[in-house]
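Extended Data, panel c. Modelled sequence:
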Amino acid sequence: MRVTPALAAAADHLLPGDDRSAARARAALRRQLRVWHISGELADSAERLLSELVTNAMRAQAQAPGAPEVGVRFVWAGGRLRLEVRDVSDELPVMNDAEEDEECGRGLVLVDALASGWGVDRDGTGKTVWVELTESAGVAGSEAGDTSARHPGPGQTPEPAPLSL
């Protein structure tokens, strides 16, 4: 009898604090999604969301000395893909109502539209922003206009443990 090793259910990466971090994060995610045999709309949405979260993390900690690293974690379990981005900033993400001609400010609107859930876990040295996507969600989240299942409040954050930098 031949035993096949189980695929890792999580992958962690530390990215340098520079302008190429979002591209590096997307490349790492693509590699991991191939290992997990995840493709199509789920993979496309995951890449968009990860890019947004890493970009936000880089902006949030731009004021910190020495361009600190950003941690990313990908978890695949039970048909659910969880993406986590850890930074050293205490600045919480804010959902804005951007005007049509504004170039920035729509990121969390995109996160809220594509993710089946998202939130922020804070600790004494920064925060982890996470999103979850479900395998079966053609359009993530619940019915159009109902965001109750997408942004759980404090205490409703599912595991796994946050990254440590």
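The longest strand covers residues 126-134. This feature is highlighted in the accompanying rendering.
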